Amino acid sequence: MSQVEFSIRQTILPGCIEISPPRQQDIRGRFVKIMQHTVFERLGLPVNFPEVFYSVSHRDVIRGLHFQTPPGDQGKLVYCPNGKILDAVVDLRAGSPAYGQHILLELDATRANMLYIPPGMAHGFRTLSESATVVYHASNEYAPECDKGIRWDSAGIAWEIETPILSARDERHPPLSDFDTPFRYGEHG
Q1: What is the pLDDT of residues 10-28, one digit of tens each?
Q2: What is the DSSP letter of 62?
Q3: Inside any domain, residue 64
Q4: 188 lies in some domain
Q5: Neighbour count for residue 151 (Cβ, 10 Å)
């Protein structure tokens, strides 16, 4: 693979970065470089992800909006190697210039774009393709006592669907307006 740099785009949420990795495509298919230690280190991004997992979802599933609270808070690198999703991130950090604001970004296998989400943000997505696989690299291991969420429809996100497929757990999360945030802007770099 030729020496092609990662392309980085800062979103309106401080620290939440869209990353377009080097990729090649030919008659055999696609090759995508997900991470390069020196590049991530230079950008101030985590280079150690102690937990990696993935989900597979059907069309019109919404997962989220999820996060872990301190001391188990996590930064996440997320991407969609199969299918297409509408990814959503909400800034939950008190004192952030973007507190309560969100971004929407399509992540898909063809573009191979990724999103780095720093600790203190809620994450969720809607599946746009028939099926989608989403991979998560987490900067902290799963801690059930820190696992939280806010309601998918309480942060002003234009999901563009009236009746999504949701888990019972996601339907029970409190709305953003009732969430007392433990996150503080600037605590993680």
Answers
A1: 999 999 999 999 888 889 9
A2: E
A3: yes
A4: no
A5: 19
Q: Which residues are catalytic?
A: 66, 136
Contact 88, 30 (CB under 8 A): no
Tokens of 21: 């990795």
- What are the pLDDT digits (tens) for 108-135? 999 999 999 999 999 999 999 999 999 9
On whether residue 98 sits in a domain, the answer given is yes
In angstroms, the CA 124 to CA 144 distance is 18
Residue 143 lies in a domain: yes
Ramachandran angles phi, psi of 11, nearest 5°: -90, 180
- The DSSP call for residue 165 is B
Residue type, 20: S
Confidence of residue 29 (pLDDT cuts 50, 70, 90): confident
| CATH number of 78's domain | 2.60.120.10
Please give the pLDDT value at position 25. 85
Give the structural domain span for 168. Answer: 7-178
User: 58-84 as b/e, with b when 16 or more CB fall inside 10 Å?
Assistant: ebebbbbbbbbbeebbbbbbbbbbebb
pTM: 0.93
Tokens coding 85 = 């999703």
Encoded tokens for 1: 């693979």
N-to-C CA span, the chain: 33
* The one-letter amino acid at 65: L
What is the number of structural domains in the chain? Answer: 1
Which residue, among 66, 63, 35, has the nearest Cα to 49 in the 3D structure?
35
